Description:
The protein is an alpha+beta fold. 29% of the residues lie in helices and 25% in strands. Strands 1-2-3-4-5-7-6 form a seven-stranded mixed β-sheet, sandwiched between helices. A hairpin with a 4-residue loop joins strand 6 and strand 7.
Amino acid sequence: MTFTFRPLDPLKDAELLHGWVTHPKAAFWMMQDAKLEDVERAYMDIAADEHHHALLGLDADGEPAFLMEKYDPAHRELVGLYEPRPGDVGMHFLTPATDTPVHGFTRSVITAVMAHLFEDPAVLRVVVEPDVGNKAVHALNAAVGFVPEREIQKPEKVALLSFCTRTQFVAATGVAA
């Protein structure tokens, strides 16, 4: 599967995102009770933040297929919870719930997200901090080369801090980065 990326438009894309982030299968996104205005506000805040960016992943037809966020962990999400290195970038991704799942879709998404991040030569390592209970994403992370380091306590959850270098990504996926 081939994907492209475009910056998320907080107002234009809010209705689509609202459906994604409030779906019961998106429980780990922690926006289950969000109203449309809450989603608009959250993504307007991200759009205004120089250290946090939201992108939509588009399928081959140019239709939105998933959400990706990248952030600077020295300034967002993980401040004070680990020692950031130059070249670290944090990442979140969300695939929407569907009634017609496509085998391998989510793995294709995380692979595309990682390849996109590593297109930037300044990115040396990707950092993630999923909920410790999110076993499905732990398996996906491992499939693209992430290595768990330790559990950390964030304000909203206990998270599994994990890292993936460019070399680990290439070794796990065979995708040039």
